[in-house]
Automatic annotation (TrEMBL):
<comment type="similarity">
    <text>Belongs to the Mediator complex subunit 10 family.</text>
</comment>
<protein>
    <recommendedName>
        <fullName>Mediator of RNA polymerase II transcription subunit 10</fullName>
    </recommendedName>
</protein>
<dbReference type="Pfam" id="PF09748">
    <property type="entry name" value="Med10"/>
</dbReference>
<dbReference type="InterPro" id="IPR019145">
    <property type="entry name" value="Mediator_Med10"/>
</dbReference>
<comment type="subunit">
    <text>Component of the Mediator complex.</text>
</comment>
<dbReference type="GO" id="GO:0045944">
    <property type="term" value="P:positive regulation of transcription by RNA polymerase II"/>
</dbReference>
<keyword id="KW-0805">Transcription regulation</keyword>
<keyword id="KW-0804">Transcription</keyword>
<dbReference type="GO" id="GO:0003712">
    <property type="term" value="F:transcription coregulator activity"/>
</dbReference>
<feature type="compositionally biased region" description="Pro residues">
    <location>
        <begin position="47"/>
        <end position="59"/>
    </location>
</feature>
<keyword id="KW-0010">Activator</keyword>
<feature type="region of interest" description="Disordered">
    <location>
        <begin position="42"/>
        <end position="67"/>
    </location>
</feature>
<comment type="function">
    <text>Component of the Mediator complex, a coactivator involved in the regulated transcription of nearly all RNA polymerase II-dependent genes. Mediator functions as a bridge to convey information from gene-specific regulatory proteins to the basal RNA polymerase II transcription machinery. Mediator is recruited to promoters by direct interactions with regulatory proteins and serves as a scaffold for the assembly of a functional preinitiation complex with RNA polymerase II and the general transcription factors.</text>
</comment>
<dbReference type="GO" id="GO:0016592">
    <property type="term" value="C:mediator complex"/>
</dbReference>
<keyword id="KW-0539">Nucleus</keyword>
Length: 235
């Protein structure tokens, strides 16, 4: 039975099954609790759906009024978001466990298990509220293809694998084009050198001088933080 509850999409089915089981038991005369028992039953809160978030409009504040985050603050914010993501993941696991328990209660419903059923149903609602609150602190950009892959019941790691394979294939195709153009340039330069040797020598001298000038300009600039810039000499 636990394998049937692999996602939160099964919540309506479980709740509907619980309602049908309660109605069927009432029709058979199994649910006639006294007033004292009825008053002690926990009530399932009927919470209204949260209002939709406001649509952000164009900012009217000047650019100078927008505060910029320092690297330390940005790192703390990222760490806080990852902590919130861990909380959401733990809440999802707890929700799946509660749904499994609720499914067991609905499948083997009796009059004596009514309080247990309502208690577990309230536990699911409370855990979903906790999950929603924790998810408000998570601001991650997730590709739509990954969400679609998860909805299809596939492993999201397959998306990463396919993406890397696609990048490798495109990289190989681009490298093949670059090698083909290099071979064509070399062949044309050899043909031109046979027909116009003096012009070809002047062309190579100009290319060498331009490469040296570019190297001097780069060396005169401030070194970058990611290391020295190397210029590849081509003849």
């Amino acid at each position: 039975m636990y394998n049937n509850l692999t996602s939160l999409a099964d919540i309506p089915f479980v709740v509907s099954t619980a309602s049908i089981g309660l109605m069927d038991a009432r029709q058979r005369g199994l649910m006639n609790p006294p007033a004292a028992l009825a008053s002690s039953l926990p009530l399932v809160p009927a919470t209204a759906p949260p209002p939709p978030p406001p649509v952000p409009g164009p900012s009217t504040a000047p650019a100078s009024a927008v505060p910029s985050l320092s690297p330390a603050v940005a790192q703390d914010s990222s760490t806080y978001q990852y902590q919130a993501l861990d909380d959401v993941s733990a809440s999802i696991q707890r929700s799946l466990a509660l749904l499994h328990q609720l499914h067991c209660s609905v499948s083997s419903f009796t009059l004596s298990s009514q309080l247990t059923l309502l208690d577990r149903l309230n536990g699911v609602i409370k855990e979903l509220s906790t999950m929603h609150s924790a998810a408000e602190d998570c601001h991650f950009q997730i590709p739509v293809d990954v969400i679609r892959l998860v909805d299809e019941g596939k492993n999201p790691d397959e998306f990463t694998k396919d993406l890397f394979n696609s990048c490798i294939q495109r990289n190989q195709a681009t490298k093949g084009k670059v090698d083909a153009f290099k071979a064509l340039r070399k062949h044309l330069l050899e043909e031109v050198e046979e027909a116009y040797p003096e012009e070809t020598e002047a062309y190579r001298a100009l290319r060498t001088a331009a490469a040296l000038e570019a190297r001097k300009m780069i060396q005169g600039q401030t070194p970058l933080a990611n290391g020295n810039v190397k210029v590849k000499m081509e003849h």
